[in-house]
Amino acid sequence: MTNLNRDCLWEIFTNLEHDKKSLHGALLVNRLWCEVAVQFLWRKPFRFLYTCSKFCQCSEQKRRMKVKKFLATLTTILAHKHTTSSVNIQDLIIWTTAPMTTFTYTDFIRHLDIHDLVWALYDGVEYLRSQRFIIDFQCSSKPFFSEITWSTSTITWAESLFQKMACDLCRLLVLYCSNLSHLSIDMVNTKWSEDNQRCTSLPSISFWITVKEIPNEILLIPTYTGSQNCLSQLVEFTWGATHWTSNFLDALSKITHHLRKLVIDMSNFGRDESRKDAKRLSTLIKAQNCLQEIKFIKCKFRILPSIMEGLRTQAKTLRIFYFQGIVKDWSIFSEVKHLTNLREIIFSHANFQCNEANMIEQSYFPHLTKLSFNVCCFRDQTILPELVVQHSGKTLRTFTLTRYYYPEKNNFIPQVITTVANYCQNLVHLEIYVDRREFQQLMLLFASCPLLEKVKLTGNPDVADELFLRIANQELSNLKELFIDAQWRFCAKSLEIFIVKSRAPLKSLVFRYSPDFSDAHLDVLFRYLKEHLHRLHIGTDKRFSKGFLEKAKETIVDFRYKLNGQVHEPVWL
Hints:
Blueprint (H helix, E strand, L loop, with lengths): L5 H9 L5 H7 L4 H11 L3 H5 L1 E2 L7 H22 L29 E3 H17 L2 H8 L13 H23 L5 E4 L5 E3 L2 E3 L6 H6 L5 H4 L7 H5 L4 E4 L6 H10 L5 E5 L9 H12 L6 E5 L6 H5 L11 E8 L5 H4 L7 E9 L4 H5 L8 E5 L1 E3 L5 H9 L5 E4 L2 E2 L10 H8 L5 E5 L5 H10 L5 E5 L3 E2 L1 H7 L9 E5 L2 E2 L2 H11 L5 E4 L7 H11 L5 E6 L5 H10 L2 E6 L10
Parallel strand pairs: 2-3, 3-6, 6-7, 7-8, 8-9, 9-10, 10-11, 10-12, 11-13, 12-14, 13-15, 15-16, 16-18, 17-19, 18-20, 20-21, 21-22
Antiparallel strand pairs: 1-5, 4-5
Helix pairs in contact: 1-3, 2-3, 5-6, 6-8, 12-13, 17-18, 18-19, 19-20, 20-21, 21-22
């Protein structure tokens, strides 16, 4: 491993770019590993600064000490690189007088999150104030800080210092971070993986909504000298502010024209719903030349039309459309129908409170490969994904319809599964909610979609022997992954008949919670899938024997077993 060349290491670390612990470990292997790993650690330094392990034990003091060290390193680099008089570098001398670092870390920065930057400055100044550094520095350094408002109050002085340092640090970052590709104002990205999440010592999001705003000195980033060079090549921007940042958006729209991904997240937006300010987001959309992916997350439905009006200008290039939130008094498909080059349409936790049927009837997406409705509520018994499939299902490769809600009356049975069977013969990946009344429809789907490789079934608690026996009548020669995300009971004999008759070459099996799964079920898997199965996750009420557990661990690469005392979600899922 230590003899791998730089290109191989780059590919490996690309898959570990969110794993701070592994990247830190790689620094110690040898010089080449260090040179590559350090570039990933400094791609998003402000985000990594507040990334901790799953069970974070950080205190406020420990967090601020870490921030102080980071700012000392950062300002050391900026101080040594800065040779002009456009920024008074003496304002940052409070952090460090150290010699130049081994690496010029600012050359590696690709991702800048504004909320993280603000917190870093707050934490740094608060650390100095708590250590009485500010009081001592105040007495000895007045000539360097002529623009700071001096006061006998340490708090007032700290706030003034923060504002001046925020301005100067942002000016320097804009000047010397010319490789920036990702910019964000992101409060929601609290978790990257199972082992990496936001530091728990940080105040809650509600603290930001009610108390703090992003200082103007930082929101002026797009207007500082060098911003044209720094921000003109951005490819991804996330707007998740807690309040309107209209001037910032106006300035960004004038210099950023190559975004490929734009995320508009109003989950924590805490101010008035101004259509005038919302149009700034629409202007930013219109300013792009090649936007490929857009996400709307919990946007206020009253201003959503104002934001989305710019989408038509991106109809030629837009490939992915994602929406989460409420649709009311306005059809979202009135705009989406114009995006005829879409490859993926995704709705998650969406509440459709208006009639979309007419607009969907007018829609056609000839290149659509993925359609997903995840936990959605429909106003009437017209199930919207069924209509989309009828018009654009021929090219679909992935279809998802997990738990959904509609007015239940007159013993209505949705026909979505039948529609997918009739229109989506090229389907490869299926995730679907199914109850007993729809078992027969599911048989039709398996018969009509021979290319299926990955299937995830969800539903209410039930006895599923009938389902397995029916599916067994279909030859599933391409099915490699099966995920039962439901509390279904079935006997070992039904499982055996399914595996033998369907001839499914299963490599991955997950039973999230099957109360009766026992040694007999495991024995069936060992006898018929021993050569194929690489992944097996089981949640059950039955305790496996020691012999079967040892055999599973020896023969299955990824084996996980959760003994459930009662119905709950296994932690490993």
